[in-house]
């Protein structure tokens, strides 16, 4: 199994925007729900957003609703996370992962995902 590769992180001022990308290979990307997760220093990895395998259904944790948008391009084996109006509390390492089960319903439960990448650091300065 090939791990996802995340990119697009960086340092941004509060109120700014970033677009994260996550590319996978070696499996049927379009058959799996995808999730974005973040881990702040000293904290557990929490779900941020998830998207169904077909892309028709999305889920967001309450703290990012209205600010973040998850999308996917199955032809490019890539899932995106557009992050607007960033806040210092959005700081952390962002990871993506595919669901454990093909054609399963997307969720915000990290236990339903596996095959984590190395992550990409997002730092939001106040």
SSE layout and pairing:
Blueprint: E1 5-7, E2 10-13, E3 18-23, E4 34-39, E5 45-51, E6 58-60, E7 68-73, E8 78-83, E9 92-98, E10 120-125
User: Helix and strand string, N-terminal first?
Assistant: EEEEEEEEEE
Number of strands: 10
Which structural class do you get from the secondary structure elements? mainly beta
Q: Assembly state here? A: single chain
CA distance, first residue to last residue: 39 Å
| Shape call | globular
Summarize the structure.
The protein is built from no helices and 10 strands.
Can you describe what's shown?
The chain is mostly beta strands. It contains no helices and 10 strands. A 6-stranded mixed β-sheet has the order 2-10-9-4-5-6, with no helix packed on it. 34% of the residues are buried. The model has no long low-confidence stretch (mean pLDDT 94).
Give descriptors for this structure:
126 residues, 0% helix, globular, mainly beta
């Amino acid at each position: 199994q090939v791990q996802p590769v995340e990119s697009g992180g960086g340092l941004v001022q509060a109120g700014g925007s970033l677009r994260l990308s996550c590319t996978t290979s070696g499996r049927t990307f379009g058959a799996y729900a995808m999730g974005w997760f973040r881990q702040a220093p000293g904290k557990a990895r929490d779900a941020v957003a998830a998207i169904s395998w077909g892309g028709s259904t999305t889920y967001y944790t309450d703290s990012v609703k209205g600010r973040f948008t998850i999308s996917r391009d199955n032809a490019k084996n890539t899932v995106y996370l557009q992050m607007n109006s960033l806040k210092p509390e959005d700081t952390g390492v962002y990871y993506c992962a595919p669901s454990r089960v093909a054609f399963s319903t997307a969720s915000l439960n990290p236990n339903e995902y596996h095959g984590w990448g190395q992550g990409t650091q997002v730092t939001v300065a106040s």
